[in-house]
Amino acid sequence: MNPTKIRLGTRGSRLALWQAEHVAQLLNQAGLATEIVIIQTIGDKVLDRSLDKIGAKGVFTEELEVSLRRGETHLAIHSAKDVQSALPPDLELLAFLAREKVNDVVLSFDESFSLDKPGIVLGTSSTRRRAQLRRFYPLAQTAESRGNLQTRLRKLEEGQFDGLVLAYAGVHRMGYDELIRYTLPETQFVPATGQGSVAVECAKSLDADLKAQLKQVLDDPATHTCLSAERAFLRTMEGGCSIPSFALARLGTNGALTLHGGIISLSGEELVAETLTTPTAAGAEVLGVQVAESVLSRGGEQILASIRQHRG
Fold first, then answer.
1. Is the pLDDT of residue 50 over 70?
2. Residue 309's pLDDT band (boundaries 50, 70, 90)?
3. Which of 73, 74, 124, 171 could form a disulfide linkage to 9, CB 3.0–4.6 angstroms apart?
4. Cβ atoms of residues 201 and 65 within 8 Å
5. What is the pLDDT confidence band of residue 49, given thresholds at 50, 70 and 90?
6. Are the CB atoms for 46 and 54 separated by under 8 Å?
7. pTM of the model
């Protein structure tokens, strides 16, 4: 029997609330009542350190997962790129919503902003983006930029940065398209695993009939297939959001699935990538493992070791 209301756990930022409200709208349209429960995570509380220095997996998900275990919420709503590569055994990813455009973008209040101007300062909290910028725009400097989108934009307006590098999906969903000065090509700035999608997590113990009903309403099968491959890649790389790895899967009209994945050194000087294709979506996870194993065997393992040694 369905509960009176489906309780959705989410972080309190405007973007996280947008995601939860979007999920709620889809469920409401299917005749399911919802309630949004705001939960603060360690990633929301600790803003004076970069993500790779916080030292915890699931910095934006752990507290939401505790709520699932306690039965305080039925679903946890995440940005898919924030979900750790390996879930606890009592939890599962039930659905992935249809994916938004995957690109990174550069925002600036300066309409004449140029990425080619020497010495520009770009704000980002992403290890991957910093490394890619060092490779493709070596004249640019990067600065740590933690906080929600509105906090980062305030810092940008104050002149702490010349530009901000963010995921298009969040910028678009919050209505800041007019500040986009560059859309970075995904062929160079290959995104993080899951970028552009919303992930819906639940406890495995949740009623099976209810899970099936929720998945039917929320899950986009094509996105789920692509993210299954990307997450298998990330899991095999044994990396998280603090490792500069990247992966992007595409599902062709003929049903074939292609995955491009790799890793870049912190300096941006070394990059190892692989692209492989499987003829059917059924091979998504195997494809992710194969791409990761190829990357690791051709120099990726050495890059990872160097990063770990650098961080002590």
1. no
2. confident
3. 73
4. yes
5. very low
6. yes
7. 0.91
**What was the pLDDT predicted at 240?**
61
The CATH code of the domain at 220-312 is 3.30.160.40
Whether 230 and 259 have beta carbons less than 8 Å apart is answered as yes
12-49 in b/e form (b: 16+ CB < 10 A) is: ebebbebbbbebbebbeeeebebebbebebebbebeee
Handedness of CA 204, 258, 52, 115 (dihedral sign): negative
CA torsion, points 266, 168, 81, 217, in degrees to nearest 10? -170
Q: pLDDT (tens digit, 9 = 90+) per residue, 264-305? A: 999 999 999 999 999 988 999 999 999 999 999 999 999 999
Alpha-carbon span 270 to 245, nearest angstrom: 12
Please provide the CATH number assigned to the domain covering 104-183.
Answer: 3.40.190.10
Q: Catalytic residues, which ones?
A: 82
**The two domains 1-97+198-219 and 104-183 share their CATH topology (first three levels equal):** yes
DSSP secondary structure letter of residue 92: E
Contact 255, 281 (CB under 8 A): yes
**Residue 197 to residue 220: CA distance in whole angstroms:** 10
Q: Concatenated DSSP letters for 231-291?
A: HHHHHHHT--TTS-EEEEEEE-TTS-EEEEEEEE-TTSS-EEEEEEEESSGGGHHHHHHHH
What is the homologous superfamily of the domain 1-97+198-219 according to CATH? Periplasmic binding protein-like II (3.40.190.10)
Query: What are the extents of the domains in the chain?
Result: 1-97+198-219, 104-183, 220-312
Q: How far apart are CA 255 and CA 114, in angstroms?
A: 40
Going by the DSSP 8-state scheme, the letter that residue 98 receives in this structure is P
pLDDT tens for 196-228 read: 999 999 999 999 999 999 999 999 999 999 999
